[in-house]
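Severity: low
Component: inverse-folding endpoint
Summary: output formatting inconsistent between runs
Steps to reproduce: submit the following C-alpha cells with default settings.
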C-alpha cells in the first residue's frame, strides 16, 4: 500500500473519504446487514462531521458510544452499534488504514442475557402464529422456527432448491432447502418434510422465490416487519419488542433444550464458531450438574 493512502491513525479522514470507506466495506454484505450497518455508520459519520474529529479512532468511537448512551440508547442497542463499528474497524485494518489490533480494543461483550430475553416461549409463539395477519406471514414464522434461518435467508429461498425427503439424499427423513447466508455462503438446511411441502405449495409456481410480491420479486423485510407489527397489535403484544429474529432464537434454544448436539445446531444456523452457538445455552437457575451423575459413582 502506498504511503499516499490516508491512514486514520495519522490523519483524521474527511467525511467524503469516510463514506467511500464505508461503502466499500458494505459492498458484499447481505441486504439486511447492509441496512443495519449503514444506519450505524451514517450516524457515526454525522457525529464526526459535527466537529467531533479525532486522530485516534478509538477515542472517536468511544466518544460516539458515550453520546449514544446519553441519547438514551439501551444496552442492547449499544451492543449492536459496537458490533457494527468493530466490523468497520476490522475492514479498515485489512485495508491498512488502521494499525493491526485496533478493532480488538472495542470490546463487544456477551449477548447471552440479551438472547435469553429475546427468545419466544411456546405460548407467545403459537399465539402470534394463530393471529398472523395473513397466511404468508404465518408460513414465514413457521419456516423461521422450523429451520432456524435468518429472515433475510427466508425471504430469498429459491423454489428450485426445495427438496422432498426422497430428493434430499442422504437424509431420507427430512426435506431440505438451500439458503444464502452471511458473506454469500450457501448452506443446505434439513427440516420437516411437511414444512418443505408447504413451501413448495405456497405462491405462484412460476416465481423463482417462495415469498414474493405480485410481480415476482422477493418480499422485503419492511413488509414482514409491518405485518408482524399488525399481528402483535392483534395479539395484544404490541410493546413486546418481538422481531422475526426471535423465531431463530426460539429454534436454537428449544433444539438445545431437547438435547440437539451443539455442532449440528451450529451447522444449521450457519455459525462459523461454536462459541456463538453456545450463547443459546440457557441454564435454569435451579439446574444442577449433580443430576447428571450416576448413583453408583
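Observed output (run 2 of 3):
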Amino acid at each position: 500500500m502506498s504511503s499516499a493512502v490516508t491512514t486514520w491513525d495519522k490523519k483524521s479522514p474527511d467525511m467524503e473519504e469516510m463514506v467511500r470507506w464505508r461503502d466499500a466495506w458494505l459492498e458484499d454484505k447481505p441486504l439486511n446487514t447492509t441496512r443495519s450497518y449503514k444506519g450505524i455508520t451514517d450516524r457515526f459519520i454525522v457525529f464526526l462531521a459535527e466537529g467531533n474529529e479525532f486522530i485516534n479512532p478509538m477515542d472517536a468511537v468511544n466518544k460516539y458510544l458515550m453520546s449514544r448512551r446519553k441519547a438514551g440508547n439501551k444496552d442492547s442497542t449499544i451492543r449492536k452499534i459496537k458490533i457494527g463499528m468493530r466490523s468497520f474497524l476490522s475492514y479498515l485494518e485489512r485495508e491498512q488504514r488502521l494499525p493491526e489490533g485496533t478493532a480488538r480494543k472495542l470490546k463487544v461483550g456477551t449477548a447471552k442475557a440479551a438472547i435469553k430475553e429475546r427468545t419466544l416461549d411456546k405460548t407467545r409463539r403459537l399465539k402470534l402464529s394463530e393471529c398472523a395477519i395473513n397466511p404468508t406471514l404465518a408460513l414465514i414464522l413457521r419456516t423461521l422456527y422450523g429451520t432456524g434461518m435468518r429472515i433475510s435467508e427466508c425471504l430469498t429461498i429459491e423454489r428450485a432448491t426445495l427438496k422432498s425427503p426422497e430428493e434430499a439424499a442422504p437424509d431420507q427423513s427430512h426435506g431440505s432447502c438451500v439458503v444464502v447466508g452471511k458473506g454469500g455462503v450457501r448452506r443446505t438446511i434439513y427440516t420437516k418434510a411437511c414444512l418443505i411441502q408447504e413451501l413448495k405449495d405456497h405462491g405462484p409456481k412460476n416465481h423463482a422465490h417462495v415469498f414474493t410480491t405480485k410481480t415476482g420479486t422477493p418480499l422485503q423485510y419492511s413488509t414482514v416487519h409491518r405485518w408482524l407489527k399488525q399481528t402483535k397489535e392483534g395479539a395484544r403484544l404490541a410493546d413486546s419488542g418481538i422481531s422475526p429474529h426471535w423465531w431463530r432464537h426460539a429454534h436454537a434454544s428449544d433444539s438445545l433444550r431437547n438435547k440437539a448436539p451443539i455442532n449440528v445446531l451450529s451447522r444449521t444456523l450457519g455459525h462459523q464458531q461454536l462459541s456463538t452457538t453456545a450463547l443459546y445455552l440457557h441454564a435454569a437457575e435451579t439446574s444442577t450438574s449433580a443430576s447428571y451423575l450416576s448413583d453408583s459413582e
